[in-house]
Amino acid sequence: xxxxxxxxxxxxxxxxxxxxxxxxxxxxxxxxxxxxxxxxxxxxxxxxxxxxxxxxxxxxxxxxxxxxxxxxxxxxxxxxxxxxxxxxxxxxxxxxxxxxxxxxxxxxxxxxxxxxxxxxxxxxxxxxxxxxxxxxxxxxxxxxxxxxxxxxxxxxxxxxxxxxxxxxxxxxxxxxxxxxxxxxxxxxxxxxxxxxxxxxxxxxxxxxxxxxxxxxxxxxxxxxxxxx
Length: 228
Known about the structure:
Blueprint: E1 2-8, H1 15-28, E2 32-37, H2 52-63, E3 69-71, H3 86-95, E4 102-108, H4 109-112, H5 121-127, E5 129-133, H6 141-146, E6 151-158, E7 164-170, E8 175-181, H7 190-199, H8 213-221
Parallel strand pairs: 1-2, 1-4, 2-3, 4-5, 5-8
Antiparallel strand pairs: 6-7, 7-8
Helix pairs in contact: 2-8, 3-5
């Protein structure tokens, strides 16, 4: 089984999120993508605008009917108040899988560029494979520059299926692959979506291009993102 963990704030989930998940499933022949809104984002000082349950419902609406995509609570806020660290989530996920199963972390390039600040980043980078979606003409060197000093790129291969594979290796052992999808067509930012929603409230807001209609309706019904 080939499974990808697609974590993030999803505040709100937009068409770019869905496009990335579809592209990853297609190119890497994934069996399943777990879409997991995060309870407490360690690197963001400000709280999410929508609550966890609101973001869960919006993700369900955004990914409804998408084959092989499952909304998961695996990254919900912890009972002990500790932030949600991706390394903990990946290890928990792997404990429930077979040894022959493959686990990937799926994310956009902007998220990966912060990887050096992540908790136990080096361990995470060799603990599972990565799928990173980027827009055309993205500078590959930025990914290598974002790696912690203890992680190095040891191989670079152009895959016949339309993605670039970087081999990663840690100084203390362990290796993994980073699969770069460098043709993500959707250019959408959740920050920009929230800003647009705050400027124009109500059904006249022109957000159909970036949001699933059911997500847009939920946002309007619950009056989300009006004061961001």
